[in-house]
Amino acid sequence: MHFKKEHIIKLLNRISIFAAENLEEIKKVVKDNTNKIDSTYAGLIIRQYTIVNDLKILFETKVNGYLTSEFILFRCIVDDYIRFTYVVNQENKEEYVVKMNSDAYNKNFNKFDELAKINEEKFEGKYPFYPTNEFLKETKKTFKDTPENEHYFINKDSFKLKSFPSTGSLIKGLDETEYTHSLIRAYFIWRKYSEFVHYSYFSYAEETLIDPTKDDTYSEYAEIICYSYMNILNSMKHFVDTYNLSIIDSNNLAEYYKDAGH
Description:
The protein folds into 2 domains: about 5-90 and about 175-255; about 100-165, no CATH class. It is built from 10 helices and 2 strands. It has helices at about 5-30, 35-60, 70-90, 95-125, 135-145, 165-170, 180-195, 200-210, 215-245, 255, and strands at about 155, 160. Strands 1-2 form a two-stranded antiparallel sheet. It is globular. The mean pLDDT is about 95.
């Protein structure tokens, strides 16, 4: 099938409905917002809902032919797909969710550490909005003393947190499994679209060569929209297993995507 813009808009709308109707189901049974496993999966569905609606608005209203925003948003979907498909295919899914979240906290603390170092060395700790060493020390103590953060630590005394593989390392470390091919394919798109996140003449020149009405860009977008569907579906499987929820699929996306190879 040769996809056109109107097909992409229709697919995005169907994914939006799929996310919305299942979020309503989750609200009926999930009352504890402090459960970080539940919140991680629910948050992923909310993220898909947000991104696909933003993309839909772009496709419906944009008057110029440049696609930077679309590439960046679609890359977010691909990134989610790679990471969460990897997670849900591990034997201990919950531990890998913990590792992924722990890794995010660790990167945030490293960011604070870098900013505090610049602030202290360059501005005597007085630069506005930048953290100080004292702030970083207090923040780490609060995090360490919070009981629900216990499972993020490898070593609390040295403030060593669990890690999650980078996207490249994740792909390189894949075994021959049922889902390997789909992630390797997704990684190609992820790398391709990464060029548009940080501007350069190369990314500008690359974008000027793209014409979705003549090339396969819309087909590639349709493939990524399937990834968004899979992100929502994989998240909902957690709630099916944990709370015995039923997945709502009023647009019969399961039938539409049954031969997608994912």
